[in-house]
Design brief:
Layout lengths: L1 H44 L1 E6 L3 H14 L4 E6 L2 H13 L7 E4 L1 H8 L5 E2 L8 H4 L10 E2 L8 E2 L3 E2 L3 E3 L24 E4 L6 H13 L1 H14 L2 E3 L2 H10 L4 E3 L3 H9 L5 E3 L7 E4 L4 E5 L5 H12 L1 H11 L25 E3 L3 H4 L3 H11 L2
Parallel strand pairs: 1-2, 1-3, 9-10, 9-11, 13-15
Antiparallel strand pairs: 3-14, 4-14, 5-6, 6-14, 7-13, 8-11, 8-12
Helix pairs in contact: 1-10, 2-11, 3-4, 6-7, 7-13
Length: about 375
């Protein structure tokens, strides 16, 4: 009986394998033909225009590696802060100008600036390559989207949001490793705050504070940290350089993407990965992509997105930005260990659309304190 059962199971296993091989044989030509047609159309368009994060390392990685993979398709990479990119995009569209194809940047910008002006097309229909569409290549075996519909903004980075950096000549990490340490008299006028009003890392940090403290305590903390700060600034590179130079001892809410590019260039600052008492948030940083509608080069845009989300594109991005890719086959040996969430950590997911939206009470107090 056991032998018969074993033979039946073996036969079923062979049938299952045969079915999968047959399915693969049927579907492979379909995606290959779609990809071949897309490449031909993209070559005719000639180039893709990508709005992405600032920094020479990411610009070089994206343009060099994409051009090596697709020499017949040019790439025009326009780097800048995500919120400013979206503002320019809206101004162009209001004037009837459609110059960009792909947005790569923060989820706050995608959901609060691009989505309201209906600038995005669904991403998933544009994904063709099996290495991109196969959920086994992604963490949690799924593609992750930040928008409620799960259509318009695909997240390809998950890592810890750095809440604080410091000048190691002026600060010891144990002096600032709890959230309320920042309110000590010794740090009066020695803190620079990354402005929480526009989209970006400062915005995420203050939304996290609101969540972990609750509205009443957070409102009190906002008032006290604003009075304590020596400066509030929107230039994310300059803030980090100020701390490295010793002009300020602490920076609350640094941009991870800008920070890690500067660290690669040799800038010296101390990094606090999370507070002992309240943890930190998990962020996509600049690691999400939207397909812009009414694009001048729609086919080249789809080629770029498939490349970006593949192993080669994600490896190039991760090494340029020091980002933790959601792809499971992207190497991590170049990444600082403190970027990866640890088991049992206290982390708030910051990049979903639900968590991007501020309450009226939070918006009101922030505008009172930081409005210009």
């Amino acid at each position: 009986m056991k032998t018969i059962t074993s033979l039946r199971l073996a036969a079923l296993g062979l049938l299952s394998v045969a079915w999968h091989l047959s399915a693969s044989a049927q579907t492979a030509p379909e995606w290959q033909e779609r990809w071949h047609q897309l490449l031909n159309q993209a070559k005719k368009e000639g180039k893709v225009v990508v709005l992405g994060p600032p920094g020479e390392s990411v610009r070089e990685a994206m343009t060099r590696d994409f051009s090596n993979a697709f020499p017949d398709i040019g790439i025009e990479y326009l780097g800048g802060r995500s919120g400013e990119q979206a503002t320019r995009l809206k101004a162009e569209r209001d004037a009837g100008i459609y110059s960009a194809d792909v947005f790569v940047g923060g989820t706050t910008t995608a959901n609060t600036q691009l989505k309201p002006i209906r600038a995005q097309d669904p991403v998933q229909p544009a994904l063709i390559l099996p290495e991109v569409t196969d959920p086994r290549n992604w963490r949690d075996r799924r593609l992750e989207f930040s928008d409620k519909e799960g259509l318009y903004n695909l997240v390809f980075v998950n890592q810890l949001k750095t809440p604080l950096i410091f000048n190691p000549k002026q600060v010891k990490v144990e002096e600032v490793d709890e959230l309320y340490d920042l309110l000590q008299p010794r740090w009066k006028e020695k803190i620079v705050i990354n402005d929480p009003l526009p989209s970006g890392a400062g915005n995420v940090t203050f939304r996290w504070i609101w969540q972990v403290l609750g509205p009443e305590k957070a409102r009190d903390y906002y008032v006290k940290i604003r009075a304590h700060a020596g400066a509030v600034d929107r230039d994310q590179r300059r803030q980090i350089e100020w701390v490295a130079q010793g002009k300020y001892a602490l920076l609350l809410g640094p941009s991870d993407g800008v920070l890690y590019q500067l660290l690669q260039r040799g800038i010296r600052v101390g990094v606090l990965s999370e507070f002992k008492d309240y943890g930190t948030s998990i962020t996509a940083s600049f690691g999400s992509v939207s397909l812009l509608n009414r694009a001048p080069h729609p086919n080249a845009a789809r080629v770029f997105i498939n490349w970006l989300l593949g192993k080669d594109g994600q490896t190039a991005w991760s090494k340029a930005m020091d980002h933790v890719s959601r792809r499971t086959d992207v190497p991590t040996d170049h990444l600082p260990p403190y970027q990866t969430p640890r088991p049992g950590g206290r982390y708030w997911i910051s990049h979903t659309e639900e968590n991007v939206e501020r309450s009226e009470a939070e918006e009101k107090i922030l505008k009172q304190l930081f409005g210009r």
